[in-house]
What we know:
The structure is a single chain. This protein has helices spanning 11-27, 43-48, 64-81, 91-100, 128-142, 153-161, 190-199, 221-231, 247-256, 272-277, 293-300, 313-317, 330-342, 344-357, 363-379, and strands at 3-7, 31-36, 52-54, 85-89, 112-117, 147-150, 170-172, 207-212, 236-241, 263-267, 281-284, 305-308, 323-325. The two termini are 26 Å apart. The strands form two sheets. Strands 3-2-1-4-5-6-7 form a seven-stranded parallel β-sheet, with helices on both faces. Strand 8, helix 8 and strand 9 form a beta-alpha-beta unit. By secondary structure, it is α/β, with parallel strands linked by helices. Helix 1 crosses helix 15 (363-379) and helix 8 (221-231) crosses helix 13.
Amino acid sequence: xxxxxxxxxxxxxxxxxxxxxxxxxxxxxxxxxxxxxxxxxxxxxxxxxxxxxxxxxxxxxxxxxxxxxxxxxxxxxxxxxxxxxxxxxxxxxxxxxxxxxxxxxxxxxxxxxxxxxxxxxxxxxxxxxxxxxxxxxxxxxxxxxxxxxxxxxxxxxxxxxxxxxxxxxxxxxxxxxxxxxxxxxxxxxxxxxxxxxxxxxxxxxxxxxxxxxxxxxxxxxxxxxxxxxxxxxxxxxxxxxxxxxxxxxxxxxxxxxxxxxxxxxxxxxxxxxxxxxxxxxxxxxxxxxxxxxxxxxxxxxxxxxxxxxxxxxxxxxxxxxxxxxxxxxxxxxxxxxxxxxxxxxxxxxxxxxxxxxxxxxxxxxxxxxxxxxxxxxxxxxxxx
Length: 384
C-alpha cells in the first residue's frame, strides 16, 4: 500500500482545500495521513484521513521552536510511518518540514518531498528586502525538495529562472481544484438567492457587489470600500464576507465615506456560493495572491469578477474573462464597478466566458495531475 503524509500549518487549510484530494487517494487504496497544529480537534480531518498527527509551529519559520523542537516531531512520525510521499503546503509548514527531512541518512525509507507553493512570498511589485529574504529561503529549501508544484504562471517562471529546483522537477497545476458540480448555478435555487437577499434587506432592484476576503492589509479591502463610495449610485449594496483585524477600521471608514447604510460586514459565511449567486459581481483588490479561490468560485458560477492585475488573478481573468485594474487604483476600480452595474448583459457574457475557462481548473483535472505526479514520484530515484 502506498502512503502519503499531507502537511499544512493549520487544519483549516486541509479542510478548505485538500480533503477531496485526500478522499480520492484513499479510495484508490492509498494510506493518507495528515499533520497540522491541533488537527486532532478537527472533526472533518479525523473522518477523512487514516491518521492525524499534531505538531506545534510558530508563524515565524525561523523561530527556534520551528528549527529545533518541531523537526524532531516530524522526523519521528516519518521514521515510524515510512511514507512514500510527504506533500507539504503553506509557507511555515513547508519550510520546517523540508528542513526536518533534509538529512537522508536519518530515514532508511526516505519519502519523496513535494511542495505546493500557494503563491511565493516574493513576487513582482513586492518590497525588495522582503523579496530577497523569501527568495533566499526558497532557494535554501529547494535543496530539500524533490518536486515543486506552482499554481500560477508567474511563480512557474520565477521557479525556473531562479533555479529553485531543476526544471524537470517543477510542475504547473492550475490550483488545487474547484468542484464545478458544487459551484454550479444548477445547484443553487432561486429561492435560496431570494432568501439571502431578503436577509440582507435588499429589494429586487438592488444590485449587490460582493467581496469575499479576509480583512487584512494585503487584501486591500479599503480600496473596494472607497471605490464603492465613488459610485454614488442608488440601489447599490456592498457586502464583505470574511473576518480580520481591519474590521473596525473598515466600519469606521464606511461611516466617514457616508456609505455605512449601504455596506454590510457579514463575517465568516458557509453559504458563499449562494452569496456569490446573489451578486452582480464579486470584487477583489489584493496586492498579493497565489490563485484566489474566491475568483475561481465566482467564475465557476458565471458571476463576473473585478480584480487587480496581479499574479494568479491575471491568469484567471485574462482574455476577457473578467475586469482587471491596477493595484491601488481606486478610480479604475470604481469605473469597473460602474460598468458591470450599468451593463448587465455584457457582464453576464463575461461571466459565461469565465465559466467556460474554469474547466481546466476543475477538481477532477487537478486530481489527475496529482495522480501523474505521485506515480512519477514513487517510481523515480532522485539523486539531488
